[in-house]
Write a structure and sequence with these properties.
Length: about 300
């Protein structure tokens, strides 16, 4: 049976811990200069993008190369997923050529449909609903810095978007207490919150960023306007006034709190430049860990074992 990685909830906590351990191992090896190009030798990953990307594209492509495989970039203009050809036919065709598919899409149902019809593993490289690869790299980063996950408090400030939804799922899986401060019109997905709570997770939805940040171990934020919502940018800028992560908000959290952002950042909106460059910030460690976390995922899904 092929496995997919569409949502963290599809994987057990044990399996996710195995991924984190493997990611940490691959990272240590890579830093020590150990060659890893036997792990996915001759394997090909198709990367479908309906939206722009820096980190996802580069980290998957470099990751495949380091593991001895190859990645194919298929941009919005290349295949016109669902327009030139149905999602089903794209999945069936690609499955005859490649060993795995990573897709960044608008509607979450598109990546689900790809997974349903593909006979090779499908990885969600961000949908309007979820960003599981980001959350995986983020828990790796938090674990590296704090040496534990269970019992930590993560405060998300801003939009209850795809990144927030995946962090809620990650929190449920790893026993992290999740708090979000957001306007009532921009709460995280209600079904995901309910699923996380049903798993025993603590998910608090607040309005006041200061209340959320109080004594937190992690302060996390993301853009106010996600890809595909550009027409709402002005309205959102007004709605999210007061939801900026700055040095004063960080001072509410524990002194050694981590400041996190999945990037790209809009400095002066959801985070100030000073906050993003403060001693608490680990934003570029997060970006680097996309590579290591996804290499573990690729090894696990596409074949070889480390
Ligand atoms: N964080 C993230 O997914 O970045 P990109 O949009 O650049 O891939
Ligand atoms: N929430 C953002 C994340 C970008 C990596 C978006 O969807 O645009």
């Amino acid at each position: 049976m092929k496995r997919d990685f569409l949502s963290l909830l599809d994987w057990s906590t044990e399996e996710l811990w195995e991924l984190l351990e493997l990611a940490a191992h691959l990272k240590r090896e890579a830093r020590a200069g150990v060659r890893q190009d036997h792990l996915l030798r001759g394997k090909t990953l198709a990367m479908i993008f309906q939206k722009p990307s820096l980190r996802t594209r580069v980290s998957f492509e470099v990751g495949m190369r380091q593991l001895g495989g190859h990645a194919l970039y298929l941009g919005p203009e290349d295949i016109k997923l669902g327009q030139r050809e149905t999602v089903e036919d794209v999945a069936l065709n690609l499955s005859r050529y490649v060993d795995g598919i990573m897709a960044r899409v608008f509607g979450h149902e598109v990546v689900e449909e790809l997974a349903r019809f593909a006979t090779v593993p499908v990885i969600n490289g961000l949908s309007d609903l979820l960003h599981p690869c980001q959350a995986l790299a983020d828990v790796l980063t938090i674990w590296e810095k704090k040496r534990r996950l269970e019992g930590l408090t993560l405060a998300f400030i801003g939009d209850g978007n795809n990144v927030a939804n995946s962090l809620i799922e990650a929190s449920a899986k790893f026993g992290i207490r999740f708090r979000i401060a957001c306007p009532e019109t921009h709460e995280p997905n209600a079904r995901i919150v309910a699923e996380a709570r049903a798993l025993g997770a603590e998910v608090e939805i607040l309005r006041d960023p200061k209340e959320a940040a109080k004594d937190a171990d992690v302060i996390y934020t993301d853009v106010w306007t996600s890809m595909g919502q550009e027409a709402e940018a002005e309205v959102r800028r007004r709605k999210f006034q007061g939801y900026t992560v700055d040095l004063s908000l960080i001072s509410q959290a524990k002194p050694d709190a981590l400041v996190m952002h999945c990037l790209p950042a809009h400095y002066g909106e959801e985070i100030t430049y000073e906050a993003a460059r403060s001693k608490n910030s680990v934003i570029f460690d997060q970006a680097e860990n996309r590579l290591h976390a996804q290499k573990a995922l690729l090894v696990r899904l596409l074949g070889g074992r480390a």
